[in-house]
Amino acid sequence: MMTLIHAPNSRSTRILVLIDEMGIRDKIEIKCVDLIRNDGTGRQDPANPHPEGKVPALIHDGTVITESGAIMLYLTALFPDSGLAPKPGSARRGEYLTWLFWYQGVMEPVMMAEMFGLKHPGLARNFRGLPEIAARVHAALAKGPWLCGEYSAADLICASAFTFMPQFMPDDPLIRDWVARYQARPALARAKAMDADWAAQAA
Question: Pick from 24, 54, 115, 158: CA 20 to 30 A from residue 127's CA?
Fold first, then answer.
């Protein structure tokens, strides 16, 4: 049995969605913890094994896996028949891996810098900005409804950014429709309902 370290209404909510989409809820225990929120509320929970007190974290056979992209890669590789990732050796596997790493290494850092008003020529040179993010996603979606042709964890992680930070949604019909398709998925509604129940219990 694996354990997901989770905090309601946080980055780890998208891992709840992934677990539901993959049909592996019976294989993973969900352990809710507190964490320090952007508004300063909460606390670093001693029950959280994440080295920085953040979420998500996945525990499997004593090993702690952190960072959303890494957890998504780990789970979709562990359960390759779940349909949430192109299989190793397939033509689109490289695209899938690129999106996961691009999200962690570029997309979220750019959005966070924008959120906190951080501007520096070095950031622009290394990470580019919101227009470049929109252009890259648009170029992929112009070829099909999902980033890798069929819906995958790559869509989940990238579209979730616009769900949690809607102020950065580009004025682009292709991207808006893509995010709307993600938001309409029943697994997201179920994850939000679970988060609401857990949050109510903690209040």
Answer: 54
Q: How far is CA 180 from the centre of its chain?
A: 16
Q: In terms of pTM, does the model score above 0.70?
A: yes
Q: Which two tokens stand for residue 156?
A: 């989940």
Calculate helix-pair angle for 186-202, 13-22, nearest 10 degrees. 130
- DSSP assignments along 136-166, one per residue: HHHHHHTTSSSTBSB--HHHHHHHHHHHH-G
Exposure on the CB side of residue 102, measured as CA atoms within 13 A: 18
Which residue reads 């670093």 in tokens? 44
Same structural domain for residues 15 and 74?
A: yes
Considering the domain architecture, whether residues 176 and 142 belong to the same structural domain is answered as: yes
User: Quick one: tokens of 104?
Assistant: 């962690």
pLDDT in tens, 31-66: 999 987 877 677 888 889 999 999 999 999 999 999
The token pair that represents 164 in the structure block: 């949690």
Cβ-Cβ contacts under 8 Å for 21 (sequence gap 6 or more): 82, 84, 156, 185, 187
Structural domain harbouring 50: 2-83+187-202
Residue recorded with tokens 């029950």: 47
